[in-house]
């Protein structure tokens, strides 16, 4: 185990970049995950692990012993760094640090995709927490892929990772997509949420076939160029005196209506 106690340490500065800066994460093709749950999710998905980061005093905790044992069972022996509490807190995405972080690469095991996969498409979802929640919902509903445009928050930011609760390890995620090109050539029904008068009720759709679901930002909704490519514009009937749902709630309603129809 290597101990780090200075903010001037080059390795700490690099880790701080991964914690705070999307450009650093892209350049390094790496990110940080926080806590035992995400670490377990990564290991269960056979995701590579580059480094284990511990808060000083956590070296012999049950959580760390369990994590090291799980790594050993998989034949993994990543570098272990022990950081002074103030340094660890500077890397943690939460107010009360869990005491354990891990550095992982953005690209894990190769996962096959095909034209029968359900796909989550996100356009302009800029809040990392919302984005992570949407990925979690999609993974829970059985989607295999997620396509994100350049205006979306980064799927691998620590905040999105915490909100995703391991969903990033279950989905094939492609960021910076040309969504017009993707939707025009996807070979599946494209369903986009919309409040337009010509929208079809969610509950009138046949969702037994592979579907590509398009959701937009909270303020702007799905862009018009993507709406033009939709097989159906979809609305969620709401008998109450509320104009719309937030994007996370709308996605959950739509995706789990699809699940219901296929049970």
Can you put this structure into words, describing what you see?
This protein is α/β, with parallel strands linked by helices and 263 residues long. It folds into two domains: 2-105, Ribosomal protein L30/S12 (60s Ribosomal Protein L30, Chain: A); 119-262, 3-Layer(aba) Sandwich (Alpha/beta knot), CATH 3.40.1280. Helix content is 35%, strand content 20%. The protein has ten helices and twelve strands. It has helices spanning 10-20, 22-28, 35-44, 62-73, 85-91, 128-140, 158-164, 179-184, 224-227, 247-262, and strands spanning 2-4, 30-34, 51-55, 79-83, 100-105, 119-123, 145-148, 172-174, 189-193, 200-201, 211-216, 232-235. A seven-stranded parallel beta sheet has the order 8-7-6-11-9-12-10, covered by helices on one side. Helix 1 packs across helix 2.
């Amino acid at each position: 185990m290597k101990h780090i106690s200075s903010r001037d340490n080059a390795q700490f500065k690099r880790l701080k970049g991964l914690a705070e800066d999307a450009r650093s994460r892209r350049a390094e093709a790496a990110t940080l995950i926080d806590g035992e749950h995400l670490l377990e999710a990564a290991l269960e998905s056979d995701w590579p692990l580059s480094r284990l980061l511990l808060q000083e005093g956590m070296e012999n905790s049950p959580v760390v012993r369990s994590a090291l044992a799980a790594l050993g069972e998989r034949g993994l022996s990543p570098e272990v760094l022990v950081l002074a509490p103030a340094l660890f807190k500077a890397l943690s995405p939460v107010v009360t640090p869990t005491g354990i972080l891990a550095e992982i690469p953005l690209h894990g095991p190769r996962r096959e995709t095909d034209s029968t996969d359900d796909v989550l498409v996100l356009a302009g979802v800029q809040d990392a927490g919302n984005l992570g929640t949407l990925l979690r919902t999609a993974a829970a509903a059985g989607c295999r892929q997620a396509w994100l445009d350049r205006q979306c928050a980064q799927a691998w930011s620590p905040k999105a990772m915490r909100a995703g609760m391991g969903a990033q390890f279950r989905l094939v995620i492609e960021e910076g997509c040309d969504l017009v090109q993707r939707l025009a050539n996807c070979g599946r029904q494209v369903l986009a949420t919309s409040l337009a008068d010509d929208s079809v009720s969610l509950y009138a759709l046949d969702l037994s076939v592979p579907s590509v679901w398009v959701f937009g930002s909270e303020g702007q909704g799905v862009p018009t160029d993507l709406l033009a490519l939709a097989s159906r514009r979809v609305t969620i009937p709401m008998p109450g005196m509320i104009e719309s749902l937030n994007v996370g709630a709308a996605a959950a309603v739509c995706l789990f209506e699809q699940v219901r129809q296929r049970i």
